[in-house]
From TrEMBL:
The keyword Cell membrane applies. Keywords: Cell membrane, Membrane, Transmembrane, Transmembrane helix. InterPro entries: LeuE-type. It is a multi-pass membrane protein. This is Threonine/homoserine/homoserine lactone efflux protein. GO terms for cellular component: plasma membrane. GO terms for biological process: cysteine export across plasma membrane. It is found in: Cell membrane.
Length: 210
C-alpha cells in the first residue's frame, strides 16, 4: 500500500506544482497581496481540483464518452475567464513601497476553483490519475478514490501554495511601482499565453461543432 500512496503523492504533486494558469495567478497575487491574502485562491484551486478528481472518479466512463464535447465547452469558458483574469492582473494599480494595498481585491476562493474546474487539462490529469490508481477489478474503488482525493488535496495545496510563497518572497524586490507595473504586465501576458493551447477547442466551440 505504501508504494501506491507514494505514487499517488508524486503524481498529484507533479500535476499541481508545474507552471500553469492557477500557479501564475498565485505568484502574481502573492507578490502583490502577500501570502495570507492569497490563501483563499490557493484553497479554492485545491478544492476545485479535488472536486474534478471526485467527479471524474464517480463518472469516469461517462466523462470519457463526453470528453470531446465537454472539453470544448470548458475550453471556451476557461479561455474567456483566463483572459479576464489576465487583464485584471496586467492592469492592476501599483502602490508605493510603504502603501498598504488594502482596498484592492485579491483572487477569491471562487476564482481559484473556477480556474481549475474550467481547465480541460485538470480533467485530463484527473482522468489519468483515476485510471491509474482507482480503476481496477482488484481494488476497492470507493476507498481508493477517497484516498486519492485526500492526497490530491494535500499535494495541490502544497503545489499552488509554493507559487504563492514564491510571489511573497519576491515582494520586496517589487517595492518600486515601476517594477510592480512590469511584473503585473509580465504575469498577465503569461496567463494570456496559457490560453494558446486551448485555441483549437475554442475555435471549434465557437464554430458550433459540438
Amino acid at each position: 500500500m505504501l508504494p501506491v500512496i507514494a505514487s499517488m503523492l508524486t503524481f498529484a504533486l507533479v500535476g499541481s506544482i508545474t507552471p500553469g494558469p492557477v500557479n501564475i495567478i498565485a505568484t502574481a497575487s502573492g507578490a502583490r497581496f502577500g501570502l495570507r491574502r492569497t490563501l483563499p485562491h490557493v484553497t479554492g484551486a485545491t478544492v476545485g481540483y479535488v472536486l474534478v478528481v471526485a467527479v471524474t472518479g464517480l463518472t469516469l466512463a461517462e466523462a470519457t464518452r463526453l470528453l470531446p464535447q465537454v472539453s470544448r465547452i470548458m475550453a471556451l469558458g476557461g479561455a474567456l475567464f483566463l483572459l479576464w483574469m489576465a487583464f485584471r492582473i496586467a492592469t492592476a494599480p501599483v502602490t508605493a513601497a510603504d502603501a498598504a494595498d488594502t482596498q484592492a481585491t485579491p483572487p477569491r476562493l471562487t476564482d481559484g476553483a473556477l480556474v481549475q474546474i474550467l481547465n480541460p487539462k485538470a480533467w485530463l490529469w484527473a482522468m489519468s490519475g483515476v485510471g491509474l490508481f482507482v480503476s481496477g477489478p482488484d481494488r476497492a474503488a470507493g476507498a481508493m478514490l477517497a484516498l486519492f482525493c485526500l492526497l490530491s488535496f494535500a499535494m495541490c495545496f502544497v503545489g499552488v501554495g509554493s507559487w504563492a510563497v514564491l510571489g511573497h518572497l519576491i515582494r520586496q524586490a517589487l517595492a518600486a511601482p515601476e517594477r510592480q507595473r512590469w511584473f503585473n504586465r509580465a504575469m498577465g501576458a503569461l496567463l494570456a499565453a496559457s490560453v494558446l493551447p486551448l485555441l483549437p477547442e475554442v475555435l471549434t466551440a465557437i464554430s458550433g461543432d459540438l
